[in-house]
Amino acid sequence: xxxxxxxxxxxxxxxxxxxxxxxxxxxxxxxxxxxxxxxxxxxxxxxxxxxxxxxxxxxxxxxxxxxxxxxxxxxxxxxxxxxxxxxxxxxxxxxxxxxxxxxxxxxxxxxxxxxxxxxxxxxxxxxxxxxxxxxxxxxxxxxxxxxxxxxxxxxxxxxxxxxxxxxxxxxxxxxxxxxxxxxxxxxxxxxxxxxxxxxxxxxxxxxxxxxxxxxxxxxxxxxxxxxxxxxxxxxxxxxxxxxxxxxxxxxxxxxxxxxxxxxxxxxxxxxxxxxxxxxxxxxxxxxxxxxxxxxxxxxxxxxxxxxxxxxxxxxxxxxxxxxxxxxxxxxxxxxxx
Length: 337
Prior knowledge:
By secondary structure, this protein is of the alpha/beta class. It has helices spanning 14-26, 43-46, 56-60, 77-86, 101-114, 128-139, 163-166, 174-177, 179-190, 257-262, 305-317, 325-336, and strands at residues 5-9, 30-36, 51-53, 67-70, 90-94, 118-121, 145-153, 195-201, 212-219, 223-230, 240-244, 247-251, 281-286, 292-297. The chain is built from twelve helices and 14 strands. The N and C termini lie far apart (44 Å).
């Protein structure tokens, strides 16, 4: 690769160390040039030679940087996206992209005016479990789909010490935390729904923000999609349950990338992205004789590296990025409703 994209991280906390730095480092088309570290300086220990700025203003003023990754708290995404574009940078923004669809449109319009590109970090499109679901649906073995359920549950009864997640700021609450993951997967598969209905709940003691949501999305030909997330689930259910006229597919949330990255395993190391045995998806089909046939479907090896490759190809070769702007606008229209 002749062109190398000089990249800057707006923050070097968990997301910078886990979800961005390792992939930028192993992709030959990117160079991690600089980060913002307001307090503790640790980036240089991980990536020799990286510049550590004290402020985002210093980072944006670095004329050598082509791409800025906005991985700051949710409520800051819009302001930083605007500032980065005006500073002449392409941007990759973590979910949620913005707090409202109006903000998203303003960012996209400004980028077009300035001839800059905008990318959204919807990494869960490249999870191993979701890739299995996508492959099964595309294969048509289930027949006409009737009901699709995506869940993202966990048990966290206490209020987080990260105030930006718990205070009534822009883009807070569980729907803005996990909703973008689930909705992006749905929109990537099925597109914009005919209609939707959303329920929010507050169940943790002293919570100010929603910690439960359930959204029903209606698609043509009586296809109904449900997405749910709950912070008070002690017995986590399968994350993906899909029913069709010819069978069903059930899959646990089993992608190991985040777990491996937290342990310091690199994306180019052997074994990266391979699900543990026993996590295979269960495909149950009804044959012509009415008999049930069960097959356990292993997932393919997963990696978020194709996301960064897609960014590279878009910047260098003008290829379309798979996460479409219209999907992000639809996602935010649902979240802001």
